[in-house]
Sequence to fold (403 residues):
Amino acid sequence: MDVATLLASVPAPAAVTAADVRAQADPASVLVVLDDDPTGTQSVAGLPVLTRWEPADLDWALATGANAVYVLTNTRSLDPETAERRNREIAAAALAAAARAGKRLTFVSRSDSTLRGHFPLETDVLAEAIEAHGGTRPALTLLVPAFPDAGRITLDSVHYWVVDGEATPVGETAFAQDATFGFYSSDLRTWVEEKTGGRIRAIEVAALTVDIIRSGTDAVAEFLRGLAEGTVVAVDVVDETDMRVVALALHRLEREGRQALLRVGPPYVRAHIGQDIAAPVTRDRIDFANDRGGLVVVGSHVPLTTAQLDALREARPGTATVEIDVRQLVDSRRDGHLEAQAAAVANALEDGTVIVHTTRELLTGRQASLSSTGCFARASSWTWLAKAKSEGVSHPQNVVPLA
Fold:
């Protein structure tokens, strides 16, 4: 559908700035963002990002005074049991650190803007963990997968992927065919019923529509106050201001003692903390140590990522490229293949930028029980990145994951 036609009857957005949100945020409240994939921080800037969750790491992050802290869980590349265990560990560690620092936490489960990931497992686990450690179970769970910057919007609870002015329901895209996290429903209400196996019926999911959001903060707060405890809320978002209005309402409810658990795409955290949209990072803003270049990691198999990889290789034909064979990652050849490719990467980085990508095929069947090809490859990519570092790569900060 033509996106202009889709949005023709949508009311004008509210005039809400990032500064308006910052003014209403409680300085004693911190978002702890459990990020299931390394690309989750692409919409924020200047925040602590942890790859470990030891007490000292979380103490340091909270001591910075930041209003949001990211913990990279990488659970989209893990099986459900491991993902559950990791979420529980991080929640417990974060709550203990918050108690030491005198901070109040709101947990954010950051996942994919095209609906792939461990839902409802991760939000269920976080809610249980909060209660198990003496807190009050969140009153609401908000689903905000939208990523307007990248053409992912939600309207009348239907989630769309917009490319070149055409809006396609996300259930009709390649993302919905994911070998592990595939789905049929584009309407978030029926998607919840699908993913919960009917435990939560579509009719029980509340629809926070763009009409309500663009009526202003009072209307959103009133709508959310009227919902029963434990309600899952599908949130419409067409642009950044929609998320800011929702954030203002949630800040108001938090002051009233009503907490929400958030399952979101990349940009919502930015809106919630009142951070302005940062300018894109250009080459002149990247500090390449010793002019040696950086590492571009391409793990996802989906057509969009493949197109990005093709464009990159066409633009930089002389760039060293190392391919990881996904088939070798799922059998006895794994360790030897990773060792060889890690050594190749380390050697090539001595001379400049290196592109590392997985084979483009999608594995299904036995391998799908481990994870989708893209997610499995991402986990493997970070595994051999650690190996490459041990081989002498001294600038792991120059890593750009494409997913």
User: Anything to note?
Assistant: Residues 366-403 have pLDDT under 50 and may be disordered. The domain at 3-273 is CATH 3.40.50.10840 (Rossmann fold). The radius of gyration is 21 Å.
